[in-house]
Amino acid sequence: MLMVRSILFNMAFYANLILQMIVLTPVYFALPRKKAFRIPKNWALSNHWLMEKIVGTTFEIEGLENIPEGGCIFAPKHQSFWDTFALLPWQKDPVYILKRELLWIPLFGWYVMKQRMIPVNRGARGKVMVGVMERTKQEMNNGRQLIIYPEGTRRPPGAEPQYRYGIARIYRDIQVPVVPIAMHPGLFWPRRRSVRFPGHFKVRILPAIEPGLDPDTFYQTLIDRLEKASDELLVETVEANPHLKLPPTAAKRLAELRQEQANATPA
Question: What does the record give as its pathway (predicted)?
Fold first, then answer.
């Protein structure tokens, strides 16, 4: 039954994407940019509905009050395709730095261009990256929210953290608050797998790290806060979903956390 539901959801997910993109394209491009973004946001909400009704997966968001007004940087954990779109309905005017090849995809690339996302050649250096940062500052000055995955790529739940220092340089140069976001969607929508698991999980938006720290201090603060919250959420999620079949990385980290707790408990 699990595989049947997973297959049905995957078919519905991609059908939903293609149909909405085709049917709503005239409306999308006729609207002003900010109003047009309601269409991707509603698409994200419809995916949440499909996942709940077909797979039986739900989630809740904690800490929305921690999102500052105006420009900021969202720094979420990145485990799944789910977290690339899931929070769009709660973001006022997000902007992504993305690889330029995505602009070449028919329809999708046009949608991205209308929203003034920032393309970059990942192999670029020097003046090109200076131009990307200038463009990023311009968008942030207009009150937009930049989304950066601090680890750069998807990591399985519980895996050893591999943060990249680039976010510290952006924090130093742009001077806006950084909002860490802990979550474990990878336990329900695993990377590189077609199976989807039922259950319930939390997205935890942490208090913002204000601008003004030196890059090294910021970098370590981000890692400490995000990893601590991720560990806490891993324990909570597994306790709330005892049926879950954990990936090896999550099972290993959970065992380590339980051992740490046992060692800290007085005899």
Answer: Lipid metabolism
Say how far apart CA 202 and CA 57 lie, in whole Å.
11
Counts for the chain of helices (H) and strands (E), in that order: 9, 7
Q: Taking 60 as the threshold, does the pLDDT of residue 64 lie above it?
A: yes
Distance of CA 25 to the CA centre of its chain: 25
First-to-final CA distance of the chain: 45
What whole-number distance in Å separates Cα of residue 121 and Cα of residue 103?
11
- For the chain, the structural domain boundaries read 1-55, 58-89+143-267, 94-141
Q: What is the residue whose two structure tokens read 């997000």?
A: 94
Which residues lie closer than 8 Å to 205 by C-beta, 6 or more apart?
61, 62, 63, 64, 66, 67, 179, 181
Nearest to 91 by CA among 73, 114, 78: 73
**pLDDT classification of 133: cutoffs 50, 70, 90:** confident
Residues contacting 158, CB < 8 A, separation 6+: 234, 246, 247, 249, 250, 251, 252, 253, 254
Q: Are 185 and 201 in contact (CB under 8 A)?
A: yes
Mean pLDDT for 214-231 is 97
pLDDT band at 264 (very low <50, low <70, confident <90, very high): confident
